[in-house]
Amino acid sequence: EAGVTQFPSHSVIEKGQTVTLRCDPISGHDNLYWYRRVMGKEIKFLLHFVKESKQDESGMPNNRFLAERTGGTYSTLKVQPAELEDSGVYFCASRGGPDLNTEAFFGQGTRLTVV
Amino acid sequence: AQKITQTQPGMFVQEKEAVTLDCTYDTSDPSYGLFWYKQPSSGEMIFLIYQGSYDQQNATEGRYSLNFQKARKSANLVISASQLGDSAMYFCAMSLGNRDDKIIFGKGTRLHILP
Q: Which residues in chain A have their CB less than 8 angstroms from residue B95's CB?
């Protein structure tokens, strides 16, 4: 069974540009989460999809960030326009359902550097 | 509000010794799950162990065990017979048993195993 995949693995962009990150969850997982870890700091929750619906987007930092999950399969996270403080590692995770007994499987992360 | 606290930013332990990584949590919800994840230098997030709030026994997975003390709201990770490959960041995390089932993370503990 394929795990959670994210791409690109690395992205270096200039301030003001647009970047789109993609996450493919484990097939059949309804729950998809986005997290961000800025260098040396904690892992911050960004948002949570249940199928194609945004269950919780309380962690989205501002309206420069747009997440979608059309059809309830893969998800994209677009940053437009990117700022220097957006640099960090963006993780995606998926989970089978709201049952407590399901662990969240993480992708390898996308390391975003805004210069 | 829910919160995870890891008070040890870094630890140094001699190889083959046991190590305990501290984690306390705060929630008023009676139904929750507790997780530990390992993040090696390569960056991926690796699930280690899970404990449900209603589980009567402490969770164990190979060399990992979770010392769950519900009254104290602590969920310490114990690694027995530490190995050099255990050097990594370790994150304690929690998920609630309701529709707001995002996983929140502590700040992490960086563990260094010394030869």
A: 100, 104
Q: Which of residues 77 through 96 in chain B touch A, CB cutoff 8 A? A: 91, 95
Residues B49 and B36 sit within 8 Å (Cβ to Cβ): yes
Burial B8-26 (b: 16+ CB within 10 A, else e): eeeeebeeeeebebbbbbe
pLDDT band of B91, cuts 50, 70, 90: very high
**Any idea what the Cα angle at residue B67 is, between residues B110 and B45, rounded to 5°?**
40
Residue closest to A20 by CA, chosen among A56, A84, A54, A67: A67
CB spacing of A56 vs B102 below 8 angstroms: yes
**Tens of pLDDT along B10-25?**
999 999 999 999 999 9
